[in-house]
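Objective 1b: paired records.
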Amino acid sequence: MAKSLPRLIEFPVIVINFKTYIESLGNGGMKIAKEAERVSNETGVCVCVAPQFTDLKSIANAVSIPVFAQHVDPYPPGSYTGSISVEALKDAGAVGSILNHSEKKLQLTSIFTAVKMLKDAGLLSLVCADDVEPAMAIAALNPTMLAIEPPELIGTGIPVSKAKPEIISESVRRIRSINREVKILCGAGITRGDDVYRAIELGSDGVLLASGVVKAKDPGAVIREMAEAILSFR
């Protein structure tokens, strides 16, 4: 049976990061989010989306699946021009935020502060790490989820679950030794159902991906293939 967080996230989970791809901007992002919602409703597999900031509120208002922000800054509301506050995410309808993606790195102290601010606001944190050692340090901060993403594989179509399976299996083993509550996701290069199957087989609780869905000719078909891979574990 899938383990769950109350009324929000069920595991194994698929999280789709829209990044700033032109394909996910405006109406394009809405279409992908709607496809994700349709597949989630039809299969029972939890699919989450992380739209571009300009589309965050409209998409969160339009779909029933969990919607994440792509980043949040560790600052309170006030004189922080250009920053994204936790309060703004909550107001927009996001359930949480991605943090420390390899394309938006943060210092460990900033991650700690942002994770705490999200938790205090009743929101979830999905923190990225590029290897086992930083993953261990981040796990100690008690995020909701932790995604292992070697940066050299991001956007390549080469899945970490196949190219560097030892990172996933070793991360799962060592993280579980210090934090049994955090959910561990596999990221980088995930493009097919087989990649998702292998990631779950290695002990992860789901996947974080981007271009494999966003830039696909038929995003809905790709999401469905991945959801069906997860169903084989139920």
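Objective 1b, second protein:
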Amino acid sequence: MILPIIAYGDPVLRKIGVDIDKEYPNLSELIENMKETMVNARGIGLAAPQIGKSIRLFIVDTSPFQKDKDLDEKEREFLTNFKKVFINAKIIKEEGDEWAFNEGCLSIPDINEDVFREEKITIEYFDENFEKHVAVLDGLAARVVQHEYDHIEGILFTDKISSLKKRLIKKKLENISKGKINPDYRMKFPSLKRK
């Protein structure tokens, strides 16, 4: 089932997610719904807060990067197959040089800004079967995971841009929170909630 994506301005996007266990109600169904929602919105990642749940769960599917001609063949092949579920994730280490990449977010449509992040991470997480993993990721895979991880920490990519850029996009952000946009996927806007 395709779920509405929570728009910028909703307090749920600012909450730190709580850990869950394998008894979390309808977890498999929730993960499938998140995958369907992400694909429908043409995203490469989706975190539970973006569908209104303050839990430590996010999914990534970087296969859309397979069309990126700027990537070397090895990275393109890796990204084509990088589809994962992350539960109760904890980034253990971030290292390497910071590099800029133009990021966007399904909760903040039509806004893209360069964000600096470290190039390599070590992350500990459980998969959908609650098997524990420790992964070392770099490049675009690390970046996508860092972006989604921020969501379960109550952080948005717009928090990582300069104050000047924040001022320049302030009106756009206000319009998103007020529902004055027309994304081509289902969204739920904070100002349109029933009182």
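Helices lie at 27-40, 73-80, 139-152, 163-177. The first strand starts at residue 5 and ends at 6.
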